[in-house]
Design goal:
This protein is α/β, with parallel strands linked by helices and 336 residues long. The protein has 2 domains: 2-219, Spore Coat Polysaccharide Biosynthesis Protein SpsA, Chain A (Alpha-Beta Complex); 230-333, no CATH class. The chain is built from 11 helices and 13 strands. The chain has helices at 14-27, 44-51, 65-73, 96-105, 176-181, 194-204, 230-247, 250-273, 277-292, 294-298, 317-322, and strands spanning 2-10, 32-37, 56-59, 79-86, 89-91, 109-118, 133-135, 141-143, 146-147, 150-151, 162-164, 171-175, 208-219. The strands form 3 sheets. Strands 1, 2, 3, 4, 5, 6, 11, 12 and 13 form a 9-stranded mixed sheet that branches. Helix 1 (14-27) links the parallel strand 1 and strand 2. Helix 7 packs antiparallel against helix 8 (250-273) and helix 7 (230-247) runs parallel beside helix 9. The longest helix has 24 residues, at 250-273.
């Protein structure tokens, strides 16, 4: 068994593979590289096979999405650690070393992520993970370095390793045995927030999640669904509710779910008033889909314990951001 493998999930990402696979192959020092292909139709497979014969290729018979693709492909990768990497990420020299070292040195940590910066604006953090994900008590995710669509410039404010709540799906390292014991990603999420769900279950099983400051990568973002795509709106709202129902304590769900649905309805009305009809309907469809699947989601609840105190941000991030106008992570700890 190898120590670690960098595993790239690909679906019709030939241009990203042409652009970024060379940086992964050339700058990865302690891991072998694997491409899991979600039944692409754009010659991705033949490109990898012909141009990078040293890269392990795992071919799936259909597109299973982010969650299903990794769940089916990773068992064919024989490594202690899996470093999951989006195809639209540029890595830096020896970027994998700090991630591996941190897992080696901290056996209570199950998942880690590097600093994820924007490929287009390399002095700013990226939307998908930034300097580590956090979660407020109502299940709204945000990041150190990114609150909603406000991206901070990187001026050294996150230079130390830090426990976090969730790792960005664009680049994250996970212990293979932990991933298997947790049952992998929840395929009902398909895409978006499946990494938050995985990390929540990791915490419930007594393991930690961490940000490793000495590793950094650059992420293009929006390669699958852009922020303006109603499908992304649908998945984010539906999955956000499923996240709460699946992982909160039963007592918490009795008041958090109705309150979260009310907040989501307010968000839908805001879309309607601003003329974003497609996003308004995406939220309504998400609420309906959530209600229909409540019995199914309840059947997936795993509760070996509750979250340790202090893991969740104990205020409402949407209130702090939109009403109190706190636009950076550092401002969240300032009272008033």
């Amino acid at each position: 068994m190898d120590k670690s493998a960098v595993v790239i999930l690909n679906y019709n990402g030939l241009e990203y593979l042409r652009q970024f696979l060379p940086s992964v192959v050339n700058n990865t020092s302690q891991s072998h590289v694997v491409v899991i292909d979600n039944h692409s139709q754009d010659n991705s497979v033949s490109f990898v096979r012909q141009q990078y014969p040293q890269v392990q290729l795992v071919e799936l018979e259909q597109n299973y999405g982010f969650s299903g693709g990794y769940n089916r492909g990773l068992p064919q990768v024989n490594s202690e650690y899996w470093i999951l990497l989006n195809s639209d990420v540029e890595v830096t020299p020896n970027w994998d070393q700090p991630l591996i070292a941190y897992l080696d040195e901290n056996d209570q940590v199950g998942l880690v992520q590097p600093a994820i910066l924007s490929y287009q604006q390399k002095d700013r953090f990226d939307y998908a993970g930034a300097a580590g994900g956090q979660l407020d008590f109502m299940g709204y995710p945000f990041c150190r370095g990114r609150l909603f669509h406000t991206l901070e410039k990187n001026h050294g404010q996150y230079q130390t390793n830090q426990d976090i709540f969730w790792t960005g799906g664009a680049c994250m390292a996970v212990r293979a045995d932990l991933f298997k014991s947790l049952g992998g990603f929840d395929e009902d999420f398909f895409a978006h927030m499946e990494e938050v769900d995985l990390c929540w279950r990791c915490h419930l099983h007594g393991m930690k999640v961490a940000f490793v400051a000495t590793s950094q990568v650059y992420h293009v973002g929006g390669g699958t669904l852009t922020n303006t795509n109603p499908r992304k709106t649908y998945l984010n709202f539906r999955n956000g509710l499923n996240l709460l129902l699946k992982n909160s304590t039963l007592t918490q769900t009795f008041w958090k779910i109705p309150l979260r649905m009310l907040l989501d309805i307010i968000a839908a009305l805001r879309f309607l008033l601003t003329g974003s009809l497609s996003h308004f309907w995406a939220v309504i469809r998400a609420l309906m889909a959530f209600l229909v699947t409540i019995p199914h989601t309840l059947g997936k609840r795993q509760h070996p314990g509750s979250l340790k105190p202090g893991l969740l941000y104990n205020r409402m991030i949407i209130w702090d951001y939109f009403v109190k106008r706190k636009k950076t992570y550092g401002e969240l700890t300032v009272e008033g």
